[in-house]
Amino acid sequence: MPRAQANGLELEYDTFGDPAAPPIVLVMGLGAQMITWEEGFCELLASRGFHVVRFDNRDAGLSTWFDELGAPDLAGIVAGTAPAPYLLSDLADDTVGLFDALGFAKAHVVGASMGGMVAQQLAIDHPDRLLSLTSIMSTTGDRSVGQVSPAALATLTGSVPETREEQIELSVANYRVTGSPGYPATDEYLRRKATRNYDRGRHPAGMQRQAAAVVASGDRTERLHSVRLPTVVLHGDSDVMIDVSGGKATAAAIPDSELVIVPGMGHDLPEPLWPEIVAAIVRATARA
After folding, report:
1. Phi and psi torsions of 203, nearest 5°
2. H and E: helices and strands count for the chain
3. How far apart are CA 30 and CA 80, in angstroms?
4. Using one digit for the tens of pLDDT, what is the confidence trace for 74-114?
5. What is the mean predicted confidence (pLDDT) over 64-76?
6. Phi and psi (nearest 5°) for 250?
7. C-alpha–C-alpha distance, residues 3 and 98, integer Å
8. Which of 130, 136, 91 is CA-nearest to residue 111?
9. What is the DSSP letter of 273?
10. Between β-strands 231-236 and 258-262, what pairing exists: parallel, antiparallel or unpaired?
């Protein structure tokens, strides 16, 4: 896959569809690689008349890692006594750097989970570069909404097994906790997904620094009131990683946004829901 020089680092990316079509840039979540936007999903979106771009955020997958910054002091960051290695605004700047590298004056942006937070930050920091905003299974940074359940939190904070096989099996078990109860995946599918992620570029240390960026970036609610972009906010009613209240708060904060609550959807993008998710994205782009 190609790599772009963006904001002083390298971002691994991939594209689908006609390069002359309007661009849509997909931003993935905490510790997640761009392949979490599955090829079939990207192809479906491209079939609606878009040039689709997915990429690895900094500290994830095959983009630049920041291991020289070390492990963040998460407790200190929560308490406000320690700095984060970087902020969500830096990830937003990375995305704009990718726009520049690919020659996009403006683009539609779709973010999932932490990627939704980055997309929101883009809308705040770089509104002139966005055509529309879609925020999926995300939240505003207000700690009173979008809370993680204890079971889901354990998937983020548990100890990491030593062997490849043990780590893959743990990922499968974690997917079971956070996935969509209304659209359960097979063990074969989850194991294939976990194996591909592990072998391609799993990077727990980078996920910790991304988590620090989420915590240190604070509440975006007031700044989201100023967003004047066509916006769709999509959230599952069964999300245990970011409670549906986070999606509701996001939609309430962004003027004239559309809120879509999906029954049975958890913190993933199950294939049976791809047509509904793509339709929501297209509605945002149609308003641009």
Report:
1. -145, 80
2. 11, 8
3. 21
4. 999 999 999 999 999 999 999 999 999 999 999 999 999 99
5. 96
6. -60, -45
7. 10
8. 136
9. G
10. parallel
CB neighbourhood size of 132 (10 A): 24
Q: Say what the alpha-carbon torsion angle 281, 193, 202, 215 is, to the nearest 10 degrees.
A: 40
Instruction: Using the predicted structure, report yes or no on whether residue 193 has a pLDDT greater than 90.
Output: yes
Q: Looking at 8-140, which runs of residues are DSSP E strands?
A: 9-16, 23-27, 51-55, 107-112, 130-136
**pLDDT digit string (tens) for 165-179?**
999 999 999 999 999
Structure tokens at 106: 């403006």
Give strand ranges (E) for 181-277.
Answer: 231-236, 258-262
Start-to-end Cα distance in the chain: 30
Beta bridge partners of 23: 51
pLDDT for res 103: 98
| Interatomic CA distance for residues 218 and 191, integer angstroms | 35
Closest CA to 262 of 278, 252, 195: 278
Report how far residue 136's alpha carbon sits from residue 95's, in angstroms, rounded to the nearest whole number.
17
Place of tokens 């194991």: 191
Position 194, amino acid? A
Residue with tokens 């962004």: 254
User: Regarding beta strands 231-236 and 130-136, do their DSSP bridges make them parallel or antiparallel, or are they unpaired?
Assistant: parallel
How many other CB atoms are there within 10 angstroms of residue 80's CB atom? 10
Whether 117 contacts 90, CB under 8 Å? no
Contact in structure between 266 and 180 (CB atoms under 8 Å):
yes
Structure tokens at 72: 């963040």
3-state secondary structure of 185: coil
At 95, phi and psi to the nearest 5?
-65, -40
Residue whose pair of structure tokens reads 């100890």 in the numeric block: 159
CA distance 143 to 232: 22
